[in-house]
Design a protein that fits this description.
Radius of gyration: 21 Å
Number of helices: 11
Distance between the termini: 19 Å
Strand content: 15-25%
């Protein structure tokens, strides 16, 4: 059995989950959270047991309550709506997502038109578009490129064009989208740095190496976790005969294992390691007891807690690895 490393929790997810836990410790329950704090059903369930209440809209939160914004970020309109209800907001947005928000705001202030590469309906995409709604066009895939409509000022060259991206995309697919965009719009400008987060890239590099030698790949992660779903796709594109995503070890089907001699395992950036350990234990019971770790990178990035929750602990990192 080949176990990918890095895998599981990234610094932004760790920060966001700890933010909810510390808010519950500091302020008591209930603490409200807009959307899922991270895209993992187990994490959400465990926080609900502690007194967190997850809502889709700030209008569902009683006035004056504590509200945590999820790791995926929010638009300025959501921040304003929370303020209008006198909610005590704690911003657990991943700093790498905040970086993309600032890019969108800066480019809009420079009167550039923005092509945002990302998935329609994803909370991160909605939050980013909310920072420059009149100057942003969403591009959802390479096949989108030929049909997107841009303002005449962009087509004439009067308005500059720049791309940014959701942080949890497939690196390869994003670069293919950019290539096609540049073929159609040669004037397209790059952002100052890559927007896809280090953890997403590291997990994709690791699963590529694992997939070359694994007949079956199992990725632990939830269906709404973009980076977990991408890991399944990357595994299939890089040699795995089959690849499946599961939330829990109990979802592994015996039929997947028939005739399989080598299995690869990884997990998305919002997955606690305990879920991976349960998968490894179940696979060991099925006869796959030898584990070889395939490490492609070291991760030591740490992010400070939201300012509303800081005490003596200024930074986080590695708690759940």
């Amino acid at each position: 059995m080949l176990l990918a490393a890095p895998r599981g929790y990234c610094a932004g997810v760790d920060r966001a989950v700890i933010a909810v836990e510390k808010a519950l410790d500091q302020f008591g329950s209930p603490v409200y959270v807009r959307k899922q704090i991270v895209h993992n059903v187990h994490v959400v369930s465990e926080l609900e047991k502690r007194g967190a209440i997850f809502v889709d809209d700030v209008g569902e939160v009683p006035e004056g309550s504590h509200l945590v914004f999820s790791a995926h970020g929010v638009s300025p309109a959501v921040v304003a709506a929370a303020a209008s209800r006198d909610l005590l907001a704690i911003d657990a947005t991943c700093p790498l997502v905040t970086k993309v928000h600032r890019e969108a705001t800066r480019f809009a202030g420079q009167n550039k038109h923005i092509l945002l590469i990302g998935h329609a309906g994803h909370e991160e995409v909605e939050g980013t578009m909310g920072h420059a709604p009149e100057q942003t066009t969403l591009v959802t895939s390479p096949d989108d490129v030929d049909t997107i409509a841009l303002p005449d000022s962009v087509l004439s060259g009067a308005t500059e064009l720049v791309w940014i991206s959701q942080t949890t995309l497939s690196v390869d697919e994003t670069m293919e989208t950019v290539r096609r965009l540049r073929d159609r719009f040669p004037q397209l400008q790059d952002p100052p740095s890559d927007d896809i987060c280090y953890a997403t890239q590291n997990r994709q590099v690791a699963i590529k190496k694992v997939a070359r030698d694994a007949e079956l790949v199992i990725v632990v992660g939830s269906a709404n976790s973009s980076n977990s779903v991408r890991l399944v796709e990357v595994a299939l594109e890089n040699g795995a005969r089959a690849a499946f995503r599961v939330d829990y070890a109990s979802e592994i089907q015996q039929s997947w294992l028939e005739g399989v001699s080598s299995i690869g395992v990884s997990s998305g950036a919002s997955v606690p390691e305990v879920l991976v350990e349960e998968v490894l234990a179940d696979l060991a019971d099925a006869g796959y007891g030898t584990v070889e770790v395939v490490k492609t990178a070291e991760e030591d990035l740490m992010f400070s807690l939201p300012k509303e929750l800081r005490s003596d602990d200024r930074a986080l990192g590695g708690r759940r690895s």
